[in-house]
Amino acid sequence: MIKKNIANIITITxxxxxxxxINAEVLSVPFYIAYIYAGLSDIxxxxxxxxxxxxxxxxxxxxxxxxxxxxxxxxxxxxPYLVKYLPVYVWIIIWTVVGIRILLYLIVLFKNKSLLSNxxxxxxATGLLMFFLPFLLNIRLFVAYSTFVAxxxxxxxxxxxxxxxxxxxx
Length: 170
Known about the structure:
Layout: H1 2-23, H2 29-51, H3 57-85, H4 88-112, H5 121-131, H6 142-165
Helix pairs in contact: 1-2, 1-3, 2-3, 4-6, 5-6
């Protein structure tokens, strides 16, 4: 029974870890521990689901919900740092991506009665690079790095639009 649900259990613990992050002082040791756990568990749950051949619709939905909680928590926690350091042009890219992503979620919800997002290579690369943002807040190249991540995120969301228009994965 546990083997069949291990990936979902890991995903649920990631959601719990996100609640630890939201209650921890930003960029403190407890925050980073929960943050690293969330990142590693996000990789582990999908890997185990595929390896053990226990992928499920419930698991995909839990993963999407967990991602939503995690990224929302990250925005809440590091927002003051981003506002302080990022120039306007990066914010324009970010808000464009957010707007398109919300539109995509609504389209998929309307079409499929589901909030699943595509786990494309671009989305995975963007997620990986975004993962390092809190560790890089105090380095000189933070703005350049953030600009690259924002642009990659834009590419990812435009690619996802192309998939929807071609009616693939949705």
